[in-house]
Amino acid sequence: MRCRDHIALTLPSFLLRLVLAITFLWAGAGKIIGTTTVDGDNAARLANLGVVFIQDSAEEPESTIPDEPLNPLPETEHLETQIPEEQVPEAGDDAGSVDPVDALEQPVVDPPLDPNAGDAPSNPVEIRSVAFVNSPAVGSDYPEAVKIRRVYGIALLLDKSVSPDLTADSQPVTPTMPSWLGAGSMPVYAAWATAITELVAGLFLLFGFLTRLSSLSLCVVMLVAMWTTQIGPASLQYSDSILGFIPNKADLWDPSSYSMLLWQLALVVMSLSVVLLGAGPLSLDRMFFRPSRRDPYVSGEPAKPSVAQKAPKRKSDHDSIPVAERTEFDRSPPPPQNNPTP
Question: For the chain, what are the domain ranges?
């Protein structure tokens, strides 16, 4: 096999795998590590799904308490009992009736709350149990932006696809995803499954391991992304879409208006190409699942015809002319044949 045939069988699959691996490794890691902010109704939706927001760690203030107290207490040896002058009886009063020290030690009884109650026994109400009901969060509960991981942005998108907001005139909007996807915390689980699939499948494509399965999973992820963000709203919710499924942007002939749709379409096509081409020679799949040496796609040798395809040869005057054998990968022009004139 010629050198350019080897390159044609090796580089295309490797380059496609490399581009897909870089793209989805970056995207998957960004969803798990990166953060963003939401507020209002979006934050309330995530709170109802059970998402825990990221709390900013406040810096602890420096302690301003001095080592020594500003007003140290006097020593107990020099303490003496002092009676206020208001409570010291005068000479004309009955000084011997009440001891000044005992007067200070007498407890003070608070007056009853109801002066007309008298000594009537109180009837306290016994509380057996208290039930706390968690009401769903609303947008007014989050007037300020809260920080979340980017992966929960996918959960928010799926939740809005299942139960979209009303229009400006309070009209219902057609959902673009089935209702079972919005049950419980299913959008959160689906968001984490998407991020982990992008991360693991991108890593497998980088080394060429389980290449067809990895590229097929990424193709499914991008098809769902195209439906939820572009084609689904345009076909079910918008009335001015192009051809019934393409969103109608402000400028039809501006490629930047359709950059997201074109980028998603390119990733889908590249993933399908890797599914059809396979991992190629530069991969772990070729190391673990080595094809047979008799495979003409690998060795470049022509496939041997079966017994049914063999036909009897007719002897002619040109059988003595040597003809070079051609393989199925040979792209050179055939040698001219000198047919005798009748």
Answer: 3-53+139-288
